Amino acid sequence: MQVKSLFFNKNFITTLTRLVAVICIWNFFDSNLYNRINKIYLASDLDLIVDKIDYQHDYYKEYEKIYVVLDENLGMHENNVDDVIKLKNGQNLSSGLHNYGIDSQEISAISKALGSNFNLINPGQDIFINYDYKARYVPHSTNNDIYPKRHYFKEDYIVNHIEVRLNKIEKKIYLQRQNNAFTTTVAPLQSQKQTRVIKSKINNSLYYDAIQKGVTPIVINKMIEQYSYDIDFQRDIHKGDSFEVVFEEYYDDKSRKVKDGKLLYAGINVQGKWYRMYRFNDEFYNEKGLEIKKTLLKTPVDGARISSGFGVRRHPVLGFTRAHKGVDFAAPTGTPIYAAGDGTITHYSWGGGYGNLCTIKHTKEYSTNYAHMSRFAKGVKIGSYVKQRQVIGYIGTTGLSTGPHLHFELVKNGEKINPTKHHIQSIRTITGKSMTEFKNFVDQITKKIAQNGN
């Protein structure tokens, strides 16, 4: 009765069924693996690596790759292989080469040849390497009679030469093998200038679409920096607007990019209105010869949004309506605040409801106020002379404030005016013979853009 009850027990039947299923599946895969290996092993038309089988057995401690070959004396090799190793964050040349597969003796010889130049090679650097690749089969004994004889596949990378381009100092390091050692040569980095023209619609953002089209970050940042006097990139740019840009890049004799060059021209079409700027004598001017750079910035915080404009409003803390004689830029606490223009610090301390307050006197006419800062910038004090876009403090919520923001005021002859509407004059204007040169340059840029159809 006990045997009968056990046989008809549902749990027993379920467990037995599962066990049988597992055994069948294992036998299926195991026999297939055996047949696959033997078919491969007996294939007479193969002379190198014929396949690699992944396997795992309980007498091995880790998952390994097995290479099945016809003849243990056979191997393979490839000479003069070119590749690029990009050093990741936290890597130096030694660890980068090690991760690639170069053995420790090679790395030691390379490091010794570099000497003090080793410290010039930093994360993010591209390492151009040329090597000979050799592979051989190392027999591995096994007590398992089911599987045929196996061999581990051993690889060797014999470095012929390495080139590292130090773009910042415009030099290159070249290591050449001589027997079992290396010689090092440091030489000027030779490059050739090319001019690129890119035009595109804005479908996402200026930055994103420009990157997708191949404009480099350094060029985009220069565009944004210059246009910040006239365009609010958080609010003025819309889908369907467009841009065009002409800039330089430098390439070596193997058509590899060495470094970014200068931004020569940029144009942005905002809601049908073109804003154009041309590089002339290392400054930027519009088509009329007026310098793009103004005496004062419209927005002294990067990436901020206007949370409250200039005019009458209900005060969020006091609760009654009164004139708001400034513009509030909301941004996370600690965001840097820039001086809107060159000038002298006349107030740099607590300002009552303004919290931590900074006042800069720019000219006899103009001054600016920066309120509610979390803290002041180091090295700045009353009487300090600051330059435009110099950090003077950081976003906060001190004084009468409900959240982190900058309250920015523009004062002209003692009267607070709207900084987003007021026209700020250009610093310089092109005149005389320089204007003729400038117009010729504008014509050259216009022709380049017309010739480029993208």
Provide a descriptive summary of the structure in words.
By secondary structure, this protein is α+β, with helices and mostly antiparallel strands. It folds into four domains: 2-42; 64-188, Nuclear Transport Factor 2, Chain: A (Roll), CATH 3.10.450.350; 192-285, Nuclear Transport Factor 2, Chain: A, CATH 3.10.450; 305-417, Glucose Permease (Domain IIA), CATH 2.70.70.10. It has seven helices and 25 strands. The chain has helices at residues 2-7, 10-42, 93-100, 104-114, 206-213, 217-227, 433-451; strands at residues 49-55, 64-69, 76-86, 126-140, 150-166, 171-178, 181-188, 192-201, 242-251, 257-270, 273-280, 283-285, 305-308, 311-314, 321-324, 327-330, 336-338, 343-350, 356-361, 366-373, 375-376, 385-386, 391-394, 405-412, 415-417. The strands form six sheets. Strands 13, 16, 18, 19, 20, 22, 24 and 25 form an eight-stranded antiparallel sheet that branches. It has a five-stranded antiparallel sheet with strand order 3-4-5-6-7. A five-stranded antiparallel sheet has the order 8-9-10-11-12, sandwiched between helices. A hairpin with a 2-residue loop joins β6 and β7. The longest helix is centred in the first third of the chain and has 33 residues, at 10-42. It starts with a helix and ends with a helix.
